[in-house]
Structure formats: C-alpha cells, structure tokens
Amino acid sequence: MARTPAKVPSGEVYERIVDAALRLFTERGYFNTTVPDVARAAQVSVGSIYHHFKDKEDVARALYLDLIARMQQALTEIAGGHASAHDRCRAVMAMLFELTESDRDAMDFMLYAKHRDFLPSERPVCSSKPFETMRKFVQEGMARGEIRGMDVMVATSCLFGGAIRLITARLDGVLAEPLPAKLDEVWACAWRGIAA
Amino acid sequence: MARTPAKVPSGEVYERIVDAALRLFTERGYFNTTVPDVARAAQVSVGSIYHHFKDKEDVARALYLDLIARMQQALTEIAGGHASAHDRCRAVMAMLFELTESDRDAMDFMLYAKHRDFLPSERPVCSSKPFETMRKFVQEGMARGEIRGMDVMVATSCLFGGAIRLITARLDGVLAEPLPAKLDEVWACAWRGIAA
DNA sequence: GTCTATATCATGATAGAC
DNA sequence: GTCTATCATGATATAGAC
C-alpha cells in the first residue's frame, strides 16, 4: 500500500506517448502507424513504449478508456448543472460540438475509429458508459413527460443522430463552418422530433 | 472495340473473390485480413487474385465502388417511384433498414468501415453520390415547401442521422430487433423534426 | 527507466509451371 | 487464367547496455 502515488499514467513520458499515439492513430489510422512512428513523434525510444505498455494495442486501449472516462466526466458535470432532460441533452450536444472543434483528434478517435478492428475485447462505443448515460437522460425525460413515449434507443438515436452525423462530416472536412454555429438549428430539429 | 464483352467483372472467379473479401473485411477488418485469407475463403489461389486485381487495396476499391453504385441505383429507382420529398426520403429509410437486414456485410462495409484508412484516394462516404442524392431530395423538398428552410446539410443529417445511428447499433449487435420494425417510429421522429 | 540494436515473424507480392 | 512455391520487406516485440 505504501507505493508511489503514480497510478497508471506515471509521469511525463507516458503522456507524451499517449498524445503522439492519438495524433498518429487519427491522422493515419491505427494500422498505418508503427510503434517506431509513435516513438519518433513522442520523442521517446521504442523500448520506452514497451516499458509502459504491453504492446501497441495496449496503447490504443489506454487512450480509448481515458477518452471515454473524460467524456463520462463531462456528462456527470452536465447532469449536476442541469435538471430537465431538455437542458441536459442540449448541453450534451453543445459539449460534443465544442469538443469537436477544440480536441478534434479525441473526438475522431472516440466516435469515428473502428475500435472493433484493433480492440476486439472492448465493447462497441454505443454500449459504453457515456452513451448509456445519454440514454438515461432521455429515459428520465420520458418518465417526466418531457419526451414522448417510445423506445429509448430510438429516441436517443433520433435526438443525437443528426449531431453525430454532422460531427463526422466536420471531421471529414466536408463542413467548413465550425459546428457550434449550427447548434441552434440542429437542436431545434432534434428536440422537435421527440418532444412530447 | 471487338473485344470480349467481359467488362471489369470478368466471370465467376471475380465474383467469388469480391464476395469473400466483403465478408472477411467486415468480419475481421481490412487490415486483419490477408490475401491468402481471401483466397482460401473464395476457393481460389493467391495468384488468381493478383491476376484480377492490382493489389489488396484494389479489391477493396472495387468492392466499395460497386456497393456505392448499387446504392445509387436503388436511390434512382426510389426517385422514379415517388414524387414528394416525404415519400422519397421515407422510402430511402425503409430501403436502408431492409438492406441492413438482408445484406448486413454490404451495409457494414459501406457505412461503418473507415475507408480513409485503406482507400486514402477515395472521397469520404458523405461526399459520395448516394449521399449527394439524398441531400438533393431534401433540397427539393425545401424548395417545394415540404421541409422548413434551413441549411441542407443540417436538415439531411437530422433526417437520416437517427436511422444511421440505429443501423450501426444493429450492426454492432446492440439491437436485437430487426430494424424495419422500428421504421414507423424513427420516421415519425425524423420527419417531425424538419417538416415545414 | 530509457535507450539502441536486433531477432523473429508474417505479410504482400512475384515467378514460373501448367 | 489459374495454380504452387517462394521472396523481400517491414513490422512487432525483445535483449541487454547504460
């Protein structure tokens, strides 16, 4: 028990590796990125990477779980700051749009990467905690009579599906304008579709 | 000009290769599939594959372009059979849901694969002809006053975003029920969001 | 803990017989 | 046109010095 307080992310090298990996994995894709590539970008040696991580897949997994956790953190804060399903879900959409602009790579890796191909043991994104939380927001809104009664998965998909589609379009470079500028329009459509 | 009528897909072997590749690429992913894997699954030799295709990427490209073309064909038929944007777009959603059930692999490879990683020269899916056609349907509906005035990309994303999200959930095995059973509910939400 | 250098292995692609 | 057998490349992962 009296060990160093260094949890899993021990020190600065770990951070550099993860940051470089995120950038390269999103730019070129996981399979087009070699461990020496990551080493070079992170300014560390190959051996150092294999000291901190079991293998390349382990780097991707750490990255993925970390991003999921950060997203879940953001959702928890939103839940604390807003009472109604309407306000919570709108805040979620705003947060997703802002994150896409401020941390493009993170969003790309979380929403757009095919994790199934390189993290076969992980569950699909839509089964992850953050997506569950979003469904919970919708479920509660339905119980409170804010949202019309229907299959929760359908309602959540309709509410956020348009936004997610725009995010991927933005990540593909198809949308020139920053997403937050579209928030009002997208939200209006999405909410109108499922509001009671 | 007096050559054999065999266009690009020449004969049965070509078909077997493409079919096997589609199945393996969606099951294991492009990078987790080797050319000998495809050869074994297609019951042909490795040399035969390299006779018909330049390399592995060329197989994926043929597959992708063929699926896009088939999708575009379906959209053209829908345009011919329905006049209003409402009817056309509803028919598109129904077609997407049915195709997901009847040809899961095709849908997976078209909508869910990260083409950018292995077909860097191709444009992103949302810039492809079928997606353009879907936007055209929406655009025309807006001009006719069926759909409220707004950014066309936003409207199209909102209209089909929920359905696409459900399709990926279904492909991930998260949804137990066949998609067509949800069509009425999804369509109602989607159309309500953007109808004038 | 971090580095360099390297062993091992599997893949994509080819050669040449039939 | 199709096959079998093989090669060359380059990746992952490790060994061992510092």
From TrEMBL, chains A, B:
The record's listing under PROSITE patterns reads:
HTH_TETR_1, HTH_TETR_2
Residue ranges annotated as coiled coil are none
Q: Residues in domain HTH tetR-type?
A: 11-71
Q: Which InterPro entries match?
A: DNA-bd_HTH_TetR-type_CS (IPR023772), Homeodomain-like_sf (IPR009057), HTH-type_TetR-like_transc_reg (IPR050109), HTH_TetR (IPR001647), Tet_transcr_reg_TetR-rel_C_sf (IPR036271)
Question: What ranges are recorded for DNA binding?
Answer: 34-53
Keyword annotations of the record: DNA-binding, Repressor, Transcription, Transcription regulation
Cross-referenced Pfam families, in alphabetical order? TetR_N
From the Swiss-Prot or TrEMBL record, give the protein name.
Possible Transcriptional Regulator, TetR family
- Species the sequence originates in: Thiobacillus denitrificans (strain ATCC 25259 / T1)
